[in-house]
Amino acid sequence: MSAASCLRSEDQFLCCICLDVFTDPVSTPCGHNFCKNCINEHWNSNDQYLCPMCNKVFNTRPKLHINTLLSEVVSHSSEQQADKPGEVPCDVCTGTKLKALKSCLVCLASYCETHLEPHLTASRLKRHQLMDPVENLEDRMCMKHDKPLELFCKTDQTCVCTLCSVLDHKTHEFVPLKEEYEGKKAELGKTEAEIQEMVQKRRLKIQEIKQSVDLSKEAADREKAEGVQVFTALKESVERSLNELIETIEEKQRTTEKQAEDFIKELEQEISELKKRSSEVEKLSHSADHLHLLQNFPSLKAAPPTKDWTEVSIRPSYEGTVVKAVTQLDEMLSKHMKKLFEAELKRVQQYAVDVTLDPDTAHSELILSDDGKQVHHGDVMKKNLPYNPKRCTRYVHVLGKQSLSSGRFYFEVQVKEKTDWDLGVARESINRKGKITLRPQYGFWAICLRNGNEYRAGNNPPVHLSLKSRPQKVGVFVDYEEGLVSFYDLDAAALIYSFTGCSFTEKLYPYFSPCPNNGGKNSAPLIICPVNQTE
């Protein structure tokens, strides 16, 4: 038996001076024990060296001896002190409460190692139910019958005592608390495993998000670098074109000035000759010599040889100079735009999906090819098809089999030789049986052609599109997280339209409508084309 269990009272662990558990216990020659610091201070403050317990007087200050056994006992007991949060103190200890080792459901008390001994040795107490120490033992008693809560009523999902089972709950199903405890503990273990799995998934999601941020930063840096490169080249091209325009205008001005200078010089020379002839004519006209005037008259009457200046003029022409320069600049910008488009198209084409049409969604008047790549309106009586909740029944629509709920996808569709068509993506919950409108609030992100030349995007309100040429093949790109749906004219190398800032919460499906046949005018099919990666 341990030294602690041999002691009958925790009072023997207390110093009679400080009334607390011994700290560095020492013994006096008369056999009494004190804290080393307590007895030294006691003697320092008194004239006599008196034992505080037996009042024995020492002539000289006694030599104190460390009590090794008591130090070990105190150290062992101090380890049991309930001074930590969440620990249960012994209900029997007086003074300093020691940590309880067990709680008794019969006595409704908690005991330290010393005070637990009777429950381990006395035959009457050994029958009591012990458990790990808990507080508020009264809560473990039935408030109605003052009996321990030993059973679990599965009917009412509550803890009851034995009297409850034969009185208030006699028709209910019961199990021992331990059995229900084991079951609930197993459930908690499962719950804990599920929670840990959820935690792990969220940690993986955090890593995924961080990786996405890193990839986004890399993409942003790449885009910025490319943007700086492109716009620097454009700026240099614009400056070069401006300089060439100014040089052309200035060259024309220099040519005009040189021409004018030559004309002026020639005119001044003729003026000089005319003045000279005028002087001779005037002199002859004043001559009194008849013979001299008559002899010289023929030579002076005729005007000196001069140029006919009637049609001569300086007409500098700058018309078209700026227009030509801007046209050249526009051609250059078009080349840059084409290069940018090709780079953009190359990026989105890497998300190409092999889209096929879903016959279960096709309107009964639509005719699908065997490979699921073409669709056109048959302009015939509706086929007798079985009811399918996925089928579009009011409008001649069909969806793709493939769906998107995250990430990106891209596909291409040939639309040439058609006067009407719709193309885009639709969410899973669109109205497939009644009236619809091609707008995002109704689950459609699409563009369409009407009457052969009216293009528009089904936004709110609809956006009329001015295209330089009729698209023959259209590329469709979707970025789910970015909320982006873009349409590309692959032949014109141009962006047709983009829906931006979209909020997607459901699966998205490729959406197609070849529109009614219109008596053969719109009989050409929509064709899903294989994506040829841009070199």
Q: What's the rounded overall pLDDT mean?
A: 87
The total beta strand count reads 24
Q: What is the CATH superfamily classification of the domain at 359-529?
A: SPRY domain
- The fraction of residues in strands falls at 15-25%
- Give the strand line-up of the largest sheet: 12-13-24-15-20-21-22
Please work out how many helical segments DSSP would assign. Answer: 9
**Which class best fits the helix and strand makeup?**
alpha+beta
Report on this structure.
The protein has 535 residues and is an alpha+beta fold. Among the domains are: 1-79, Zinc/RING finger domain, C3HC4 (zinc finger) (Herpes Virus-1, 2-Layer Sandwich), CATH 3.30.40; 359-529, SPRY domain (Jelly Rolls), CATH 2.60.120.920. Helix content is 36%, strand content 18%. It has nine helices and 24 strands. The strands form six sheets. It has a seven-stranded antiparallel sheet, covered by helices on one side. Strand 12 (366-368) and strand 13 (374-377) form a beta hairpin. Helix 7 (177-285) packs antiparallel against helix 8 (290-301). The longest helix has 109 residues, at 177-285. The two termini are 89 Å apart. The relative contact order is 0.06.
How are the SSEs ordered, and which strands pair?
Elements: H1 3-6, E1 25-27, E2 33-35, H2 36-44, E3 49-50, E4 57-58, E5 65-66, H3 68-78, E6 102-104, E7 109-111, H4 113-121, H5 123-126, E8 130-131, E9 151-153, E10 158-160, H6 162-166, E11 174-176, H7 177-285, H8 290-301, H9 321-349, E12 366-368, E13 374-377, E14 398-399, E15 408-414, E16 421-427, E17 444-450, E18 454-457, E19 463-465, E20 473-479, E21 484-489, E22 494-499, E23 508-513, E24 526-529
Antiparallel strand pairs: 1-2, 1-5, 3-4, 6-7, 6-8, 9-10, 9-11, 12-13, 13-24, 14-23, 15-20, 15-24, 16-17, 16-23, 17-18, 18-19, 20-21, 21-22
